[in-house]
Amino acid sequence: MMLCSPLLGALLTIVAGCLCLLKLLRHRGPREPPLDKGLVPWLGHAVAFRKNMYEFLKRMWAKHGDVFTVQLGGQYITFVMDPLSFGPIIKDTQRTLDFTEFAHELVLKVFGYRPMDGDHQMIHSASTKHLMGQGLEDLNKAMLDCLSLVMLGPKGPSLDASCWHEDGLFRFCYSILFKAGFLSLFGCTKDKAQDLLESEELFTKFRRFDLLFPRFVYSLLGPREWVEVGQLQRLFHKRLSVEQNLEKDGISNWLGYMLQFLREQGIDSSMQDKFNFMMLWASQGNTGPTCFWALMFLLKHQDAMKAVQEEATQVLGEGRLEGRKSFAFALSSLKHTPVLDSVIEETLRLGTSPTLLRMVQKDCVLKMDSGQEYQIRRGDKVALFPYLSVHMDPDIHPEPTVFKYNRFLNPDGTRKVDFYKSGKKIHHYNMPWGSGVSICPGRFFALSEIKIFVLLMVMYFDFELVDPNVPVPPLHPRRWGFGTSQPSYEVRFRYRLKPMHAVSS
């Protein structure tokens, strides 16, 4: 038996080497998409892809057409760029394209959480129960209370509330949405000042993790950064531990439902802590950046700002503070803001760039809308990048790089849903939340967070750019494919509580 081990090890090494060699020697087979392996063995186009995914895919699309396979760090990924052909990939009635395997690998690496087979269904069930209908209304109320706490302070506006304050617009939006979202989901203690301090400290750590996140996913961190990421992971596991959360009031029913499920499945508390970290990221990683883009576009397009302000006044009336400590807000009005809905949908079109990935479980045939069929190999991945192929398609969205606040409005003020490509009505005309099995389960709450924040800003605050001529920043090239993009640079702005709301001396 002792002699078998070295022989077995050598045999496995030979087999693994042969498999790697076969991958390196891969050639395009009959009926397969164009194959572009790049010039560097195994690595392929990984460097160009990670440097600027958008520009890389644009070049590949121009070179190869609507379907092509590229080698990226030993993986072969087939990109489909024709949105009229998205349906079979998103629906996958043949069950040959799997989302969960890739997602499980990612959350284990990034958050330390080891998913179970039933997790995906559990999260969607919890979101249907608590992020829609009455559950969503309850969470919106908690979010409004927490926004009041974060934006006005535990004692309400101070004497200098009507004075101008200067800040970075991205930092302002991200920090406020994170802190209010964290408190509304994970609960508060009786010491509101301490809660604010904790949420501010946690945001600082969250932002640092966020900056490392893209290179962490691609395993491109330096030695010290790997150490730092490990420290940050452990910090969040500790700060979000179920033991600490038991001491808080008002933990959301959404989170409580999921933790109860994990307990019933016998998942230990340390893994529940890691689950909490994952859900904090999923719920708070995109809303703040989206609010930055929304306010930035409103500040640069005064016609849009005026339209949103008029709608807010019409639907909500004049803003007022209740008890000098909280915002008065009829949350039912969120269902009656078509102009703001269009503004946010246009913001998401311009500012979000998710990648939809599926693992090919067995050899299959990919049929395009044109009738062309392509053979796809087991073990490869199929990917969609709708920012380039949908959001920036001038056939679907004329002048796609221009912000048009009413792009998603019909002339009668109703929501516009009829968009066309090549004369055909297209179903997937805007995909900020993904689609199919990988669609964001928390999208309804995220939309509510964004809408409440924007309405509070236009109703209760005066705000303006420090430099009115500063352009809208380009999207950061390293954030392609990771949900809502972030700006390449910060933009300074100033704000104040409207004088009518300030405390008189």
UniProtKB/TrEMBL annotation:
Coiled-coil ranges from the UniProt annotation: none
Xref: InterPro entries: Cyt_P450, Cyt_P450_CYP7A1-type, Cyt_P450_E_grp-IV, Cyt_P450_sf, Cytochrome_CYP8B1
SUPFAM superfamilies: Cytochrome P450 (SSF48264)
Topology within the bilayer: Single-pass membrane protein
Main location: endoplasmic reticulum
Superkingdom classification of source: Eukaryota
Pfam family, one: p450
Keyword Endoplasmic reticulum attributed: yes
Key words, A-Z: Endoplasmic reticulum, Heme, Iron, Lipid biosynthesis, Lipid metabolism, Membrane, Metal-binding, Transmembrane, Transmembrane helix
Signal peptide as annotated in the record: none
Co-factor requirement: heme
Subcellular location: Endoplasmic reticulum membrane
UniProt record similarity statement: Belongs to the cytochrome P450 family.
Protein name: 7-alpha-hydroxycholest-4-en-3-one 12-alpha-hydroxylase
Source organism per UniProt: Microtus ochrogaster (Prairie vole)
Organism classification: Eukaryota, Metazoa, Chordata, Craniata, Vertebrata
